[in-house]
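Per reviewer request, we include the raw input and output of the structure prediction for the construct analysed in the revised manuscript.
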Amino acid sequence: MTEASELLPAEGTLAELPMAELLVRLDRAAFSGTLEVTASHRRNVVVLAAGHATKVRLAVPIEMLGRLLIEQGLVGAEQVESTAARQAAAGGRLGDLLVAAGAVDRAAIDRALADQLRRRLLRLFLLPAAGWRLVPETDLLTERGGAPQPLDLLAVLADGVRSSHSVDTLEGLMLEALAGRTATAAVGPDLGRLQLTPQEQSACRYLARGDWGATVFRAIPAEHRHALLVAAYCLHVTGQLRFSTTVARASVTPLPPVGWSPSVPPPATPAPRIAPSSVPPSRPEAEAPDAARAADDGSEPVAGPDREAEAQLLGAYERLGRQTYYELLGVPPDATPDALKAAYLERVKRCHPDRAVRLGLAQHRSKLEAIVLQVREAFETLSDPEARAKYDARLAGTTETTAEQVGEMIDRALAAERAYQMAVMFERQHRLDEAQQQADEALRLQPEQGEFLCMSLWLQAVRRPANAAVNDLVPGMTEAAGRVVSHERAQMQTARLLQRAGRSREALDYFRRVLRRNPQNVDAAREVRLVELRQSKQQAEPAGGGGLFGRLFGKKDK
């Protein structure tokens, strides 16, 4: 095995060494230590052991465990929120607390943690301008527990490339790799680790049938080009392509002239030798103007724009994201696989990007590409029975609020609660400026939460000089406390603020409110007792002779 020092520099950028290639090198070097990926001064951390990822911490907290469990229907949102609040107050791990409470079993937690690790690692593919550095043999996340099973880096490779690289980007990378040469796929054992889709596996078999060059990516229907490019790029970065110069090409079996599609099976016998001239020649787009390029169906281009087709195109584009997959394909929810395939092919033909040129709508080509991408996603999801069942379940339970929206709400709620608990901790440590920042962050995330506003206003008061007025804070404090009458800390903060503003009678009402809910609150009990003692002493003093002066100068009765 090549030494890690030979495979990996200490630092670099993802522009120079893309994430896919970096992960392959980490795998080949069996790297153990920490990978730091920094973008816009935000640091993401990946801990690895023997070339497998064990922990990932992102600069922006996403893919939270609670959200994943909710998405999978394993636990309710209320259960997650209440458990997260206990976690923030008393510590511990959310998964352990949920298991202890009987809300979910350990196996489900382990599966969710593995999914979380995978999703977070995939997020790093979306940081093309980031810099990275390696810290060998060092775990910079010692405070965090690792996933139950380390993650094979190659297992996320295809998914990361597929979700982060467009057709044009991948074609550019492959043209750079080919550099005028030809290639053939020498499929090795790493192929099984890549977790390719069936279409991408078929593309790999096609690329292994013989010698090919840059023309192969233009010799296939556009709807299959992305899958072919994903397969080719993954084979390239994992070292499963063999390159040869044009001179040596005659000694290599070329690809058949037919363009690849997912339905092309691997050949039962070796492909026949075909002269290189039979491979469809490359034609750079610059050689022919867009308006003169023929469409896939062979029809002639038109001179002017088709306004009716343009209106249909723009309408379809505007509806993206608001339609279900069934509506997008124009099929009923009980559509058969054959009906799905027919609808998919019809939609792709109608929305093919080359159609924009033929109809004089070249400026809308990107919109058609977006429509085709969504149609492909719909077809692939509904064609997979397991994926279709999950999608149908989501449709049945999220008619008003999508799963993504629910997840975002949960993430914001958990982040706000964490910020609030940090504010409480900092206040106890008399780190008032830091407490104020955390309280304001909680309030920003969830401005409707009364306890967050009470905390922010109380901290504003205690950060003022002891003799400074605080009356301007009272209206907002009492209004916020009225929203959370059962929140003990918010009611105590309101009482304290009223005390400081000289409104002791109103403060007493809040102290008593706290005691009614929690008779064990020592601070509230002391304040109520002091007020009651003062009142009883005033009632016991004799009229006209009470007080200190009455005792010192009053005459004794004879």
